[in-house]
Amino acid sequence: MHPTTFRFICFLSQIALVSLLLNCIIAYRKRKDDASLTHSLEILTKMLPNLIETEALLRALIALGTLICDSPSLRKNVHNGVKDLILKLSESNPGSETDSRVNQCALKLVDVILS
């Protein structure tokens, strides 16, 4: 397989996996399935530092925000490493429109996590 093809597959895979997790989080919130929401936070905690595609990172931040926005208990369980990553992203100098969206989302998450 050509390296460019492999990178494209990785790009699509990251976006697909994060999108699936976001959809699951929305369904779990509707069902008030706290155990699955907690498990989703654990998955996001492991995924976020490893995402290399900007669009996947943006969707993961949106998933995290969706997960913790109405749950003080989940908000408290956000791992320090993830908090540090979000702070770093909120302070970054965006180089593109997508980077800017990641930066804006991270800024909003900082407010939610610190509240």
TrEMBL record:
Top-level taxon of origin: Eukaryota
Record's keyword terms, sorted: Membrane, Transmembrane, Transmembrane helix
PUL domain sequence ranges: 14-106
Keyword Transmembrane among record annotations: yes
Transmembrane segments: 6-28
Pfam family membership, one: PUL
Protein name per the record: Uncharacterized protein LOC103516439
The species this protein was found in: Diaphorina citri
